[in-house]
Q: What sequence folds into this?
């Protein structure tokens, strides 16, 4: 194995602890290289695949605009993968080159779905042709302004924050106590190699003021405290955390203060997204009262957290634009290409929302 491949293997081995991602699979991925990319969808699909294990992009990649979000990459000249426009998502081989076609009119929310299909196609687990129906709303432009509190700026929070800011949110409050770690980079797209070791809050402050100068943004380097719901007075709270303890805290504080909140949880290639308010059964009705955090052993693929974050952004914009929300929980598995809506009933003995309702 040459030094470049050895380096890539070590790099991804540290980050992709996902079941089924083997050494030989990673080495197969690391030989792939994208050619010229046209448009935001192709760039995003390529970025998610690169962060999920593909190593190469050619020199005509529009590097300068998105470089701050990238991990260390190897540049190659010869392309082995090419994107084309097509009626459906299809992967084929042509003269030794992989051709990925998809309708370029699709909204950006499909980019993690396409990246997932390509990724698992490499693992030979799904068919190479997939229809693209059945996804929920796209994160749209925000017409009715509001103050959004985001708890957690990691795998889910990174794409969520970026999407909300791109779509017109101009008043945001972010709570994040952690530091940027090397094994965060593959899925936390707001951070780059040079940010490792710094507090996420300080990196976010710098990047938000650089790229989104007109936005009123507060970034707090601390854990979530229920009191902050009262002091910050958000219109909606978004939970982008990775532990049950904080989810319970957010759920209880939001119900008691009558503030709606959006939550997502992801693992491997699957996850859920939901919006809760006083009219819906709460997080405890969905998960019970006794979930305990265990040591994280499974990894999370970049496109899974990205999809979870984009779906959360879609619910936030939909809420702020004053659309109806039926209270269902959206569940997805990008490996099996399944998207379902789950209905949850209110628990009679729920210590939080059965009281709040009365
Ligand atoms: Zn409840």
A:
């Amino acid at each position: 194995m040459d030094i470049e491949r050895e380096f890539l293997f070590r790099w991804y081995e540290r980050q992709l602890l996902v079941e089924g991602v083997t050494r030989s699979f990673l080495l197969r991925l690391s030989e792939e290289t994208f050619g010229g990319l046209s448009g935001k969808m192709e760039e995003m699909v390529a970025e998610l695949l690169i962060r999920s294990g593909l190593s190469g992009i050619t020199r005509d990649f529009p590097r300068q605009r998105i470089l701050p979000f990238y991990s260390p990459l190897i540049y190659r000249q010869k392309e082995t993968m090419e994107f084309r426009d097509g009626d459906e998502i299809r992967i084929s081989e042509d003269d030794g080159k992989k051709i990925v076609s998809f309708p370029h009119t699709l909204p950006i929310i499909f980019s993690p779905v396409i990246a997932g299909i390509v990724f698992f196609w490499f693992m030979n687990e799904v068919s190479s042709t997939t229809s693209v129906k059945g996804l929920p709303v796209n994160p749209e432009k925000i017409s009715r302004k509001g103050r959004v509190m985001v708890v957690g700026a990691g795998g889910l929070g990174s794409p969520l924050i970026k999407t909300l800011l791109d779509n017109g949110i101009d008043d945001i409050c972010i709570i994040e106590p952690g530091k940027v770690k090397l094994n965060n980079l593959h899925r936390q797209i707001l951070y780059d190699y040079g940010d490792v070791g710094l507090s996420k809050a300080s990196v976010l402050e710098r990047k938000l003021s650089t790229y989104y100068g007109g936005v009123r943004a507060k970034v707090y380097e601390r854990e979530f405290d229920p009191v902050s719901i009262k002091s910050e007075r958000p219109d909606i709270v978004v939970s982008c955390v990775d532990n049950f303890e904080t989810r319970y805290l957010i759920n209880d504080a939001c119900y008691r203060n009558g503030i709606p909140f959006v939550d997502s949880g992801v693992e491997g290639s699957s996850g859920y997204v939901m919006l809760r308010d006083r009219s819906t059964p709460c997080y405890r009705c969905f998960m019970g009262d006794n979930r305990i955090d265990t040591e994280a052993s499974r990894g999370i693929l970049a496109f899974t957290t990205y999809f979870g974050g984009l779906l959360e952004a879609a619910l936030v914009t939909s809420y702020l634009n004053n659309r109806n929300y039926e209270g269902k929980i959206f569940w997805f598995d990008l490996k099996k290409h399944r998207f379902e809506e789950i209905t949850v009933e209110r628990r009679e003995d729920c210590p939080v929302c059965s009281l709040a309702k009365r």
